[in-house]
What we know:
By secondary structure, the protein is α/β, with parallel strands linked by helices. The chain has ten helices and twelve strands. It has one domain (4-319): Alpha/Beta hydrolase fold, catalytic domain (Rossmann fold), CATH 3.40.50. The chain is 33% helix and 19% strand. The termini are far apart.
Amino acid sequence: MSDVLRxxxxxxxxxxxxxxxxxxxxxxxxxxxxxxxxxLDEGPADGPVALLLHxxxxxxxxxxxxxxVLVAAGVRVIAPDNIGYGRSDKPAVAxxxxxxxxxxxxxxxxxxxxxxxxxxxxxxxxxxxxxxVLAAEPGRFARVVAANTILHTAxxxxxxxxxxxxxxxxxxxxxxxxxxxxYLLHTQRAPVLRPSDFVGAATTTPPTPEVxxxxxxxxxxxxxxxxxxxxxxxxxxxxxxxxxxxxxxTMRALxxxxxxxxxxYSDGDPATRGWDAVFQERVPGxxxxxxxxIAGAGHFLQEDAGPELGRVVxxxxxxx
Length: 320
């Protein structure tokens, strides 16, 4: 395995609104040595478990205003940092990161902590990763709250369903939203990649400079950002992509998931708009549920409306 970097602890001292103590677990993925994954573990040890999964380019800091709401409701909150993000270990070589390994690392967290009766809360890449863990460990998950997330499938049936198109056409063509291609190319070509640039651009209420700096804290230099950059290169844009094959397999599992599945999407995120309706139609557990639209929030709805999202999750746990 290549070198593994570990962000110095002092980078995380005094971050605004993030008083939580770090927890760590060794996680495994095929072909690599074990690495250390950071996670928050807040609330009563015997409470119902909410697993809060982030995506790119954030880390558990994104959930800092969601966590207290859930803890006050008697929920045990587990909020990990993906490998390559936050306080988790960061393999230095980009190709050490694959979609399958991200799934394996998160599944390893769930099994090592022996989490059960889990409410999965998934945003951005937290959906493709978390839903795939659910597909592999269905007995551990009691319910889902999907928040501004998608599932990479490139399925031709998605035509005209999504604001940001990604779907096959005929036998060998695809339709891809221009903005998505621009985003992918920028992240691969930019000499410096800062999470704060993306968080600031995809929220409706501009975060303070101190908050934006906290999103950048895990990356003291460019060598720490291999995983940050590689995750965008892993975006499946065709039906032939290994990630799309994983996504289709995961969708088949979701089409058998009859436990509560609630969508809580914002009204200001074109990147995921339309996926809430797709999940509501295709997941049995979503039918007949009270789904939520969070007004006035962008892609990072935890940043714009974290306490509101926390209340939605708490209500889903309490009433299903």
